[in-house]
Structure formats: structure tokens, C-alpha cells
Design goal:
By secondary structure, the chain is an alpha/beta fold. The chain is 29% helix and 20% strand. The chain is built from ten helices and 13 strands. Strand 11 and strand 12 form a beta hairpin. The protein is globular and about 50 Å long. It catalyses: D-ribose + ATP = D-ribose 5-phosphate + ADP + H(+).
Amino acid sequence: MGGLSALSSPKPFNHHHNPTNPNQPTPNKISSLQFNPPPSTKSNPFPSFALKASYDAVPPLVVVGSANADIYVEVDRLPKEGETISAKTGQTLAGGKGANQAVCGGKLEYPTYFVGQVGEDAHGKLITEALESGGVLLDHLSVVDDAPTGHAVVMLQSGGQNSIIIVGGANMACWPETLSPEDLEVVKNAGIVLLQREIPDSVNIQVAMAARSACVPVILDAGGVDSPIPQELLNFIDVLSPNETELARLTNMPTESFEQISQAVGKCHKMGVKEVLVKLGSKGSVLFTEGEEPIRQSVISAPKVIDTTGAGDTFTAAFAVALVEGKSKRESLKFAAAAASLCVQVKGAIPSMPRRKTVLNLLQTV
């Protein structure tokens, strides 16, 4: 893994629709998680929070992952074994960790590509429309005819907590053995890449290897399947982002206290992961960088928690957007906390992703 302050030589980003203006300066390709440009490049900064990024000049956020139709049922409590209960309401909304994170990037007005698969069915159309309305670029979204669109049953309880059952569908089936040159090229031209664990590990490994070859940082959200993360994947990621439950499962260690979380993160460091971003729900978040003091971010309280679905995805994607725009790690954590606070106030995953202006307005009050 490269040094934390190294930057490779500038490399233009070629957008599929609008070729880069050759007279327009292009940002440096970021080689690691030190996203603040050195003094010699201050004349060519990344966009600030308040400005919309140019699609022509800025290396995009690329999200490779899952897209689901989330079937919501609102219940007072979960049913016991052998019990049937009635739901208050039921509806189907677009979701999936990959699609959630992509829409979050799009709504935060950062150029975002989604690489994923849906089926030729109504759920696939629902997701495609949600991605488009969220401002996501869909050049690399595939429609497959041999598998249904992935879906999930979300049991939403009155306190805002949820339990989820996932059916993989096109997220887990029909991927090519080797990703297309076009898909790998958009990864190599990214400013940052987001992965999750609701698609095959083999796909994530190919993407992470391609990103590393081009010095593009990779964040792996640990959410998804509960199997161990292959070492081959860990070797090629820059940030692992679990919640405390996922961290406990991945390390087989308790995560009830900050000390226990720190010890579990230490095990991740030994597995080769330099940065671990732990999402702690109502207790905020902590970014652990090997050899440095942890950076803690408290939660930005929401007036009322309606639905926590998608909050972790919002947090991860917002953190990635802030980093790639040149913000410090501490600033990026605060930006992500504000976005997540807004997310939990709206039902649904994709519908709850906040707009950039709303996040900025909230940041002015905290």
C-alpha cells in the first residue's frame, strides 16, 4: 500500500458523454487516503462542498454493487416462530447497498457511476428509474435476462429499527467471469471506488485490483453476506467500513466498548487493512488509521428517527464524496454524519438520501 501522502501524475477523466476539454485543468489522480493536495497543487483544488462538481473535469465516484427492490412491511414487532402477524403498511421501494450509495453520490451532486445488474422485470425498471432520478450515470448498468432483479424484505419496527432478508437474484448471478474492459476502465478513471458485499467476492476482487493498478482508493462497506472477507480482497482495499456488529463477526471479537472495538480493529490492521471506519449507529463513528490516533465523530441528532434503512450507506457514500473533494478526514466524517442524520428522518433507502444543499444547511447549524 502506497504512502499516505503520495500523488501520481495528473490523469484526465474521459467522460462517455462529454469529452474532457483539453484546455481545462484536471485534478490529480489520488493514490491513497491523503486527499489534501500538497502546497504545489493548491492552484488546482478539488471542488469545495458548496460547489457542484464538473462532470468534464472531475474523476467520478464509481460504485460497484447491488441493486434491490426493497419490499417494506411496517410492524409493531417481529413475529415469533410459527406466528403470523399483520403489517400496518406495505410498499416496494428501490434500494440495495450499491444503488443506495450511488444515489447518495448523485444527490450530493458528485459525478457518480453505478456498475451493477438488474433483471428484465418491473423491479429492474423501478431501480433504473430511481437511479436516473438520483442523478446516477448508468452507462455501466447491465440488464440480464437469466435472473430476476434482487429484492429484500424489510421489516420496519416502530422505533425505526429494521430486520432485512435479501434475495440475491441478478446481484449474485450472471456476472461475467471477467468484467468487461469498459467496466474496468471506468474504475481505473475513478477518483474513488465504493464496494459492498451483496455481489460476488470475485467481482469485488477484480474491481479492487483494477483500482489499485491505477492508484484509485477503494472503500469496502462490510455489509452484505456474513462470510469471511477473502484475504485477496483485503489486500487491495484502502478502507474497510463495518458497523460494530459486522466488525464483531469479521474478527470474532467482542465490540461492546470502545476498547474492544479498538482491539478488533487492531486485528483488521494485522490482516493488512490500514484504515477502518467503524459506524456505531447512535454512538457516532470512529476512523482508525494504523499508527495514528483514532478520529471520533459523534452522531448529529435527528429530531425524530423514522427509518434507519440506508443510513450506513448514506454515511459511507457521503464520507467518500467529501474525501475525494479534498476535505480532511475529520471534515469528511462530519459531512457524513450530517447526511446520515437527514437519511433516518425519511422512510425508505433511496428516497431518504439527502440533497447536497440540505446537508450544507444542517452543517451550518451544528
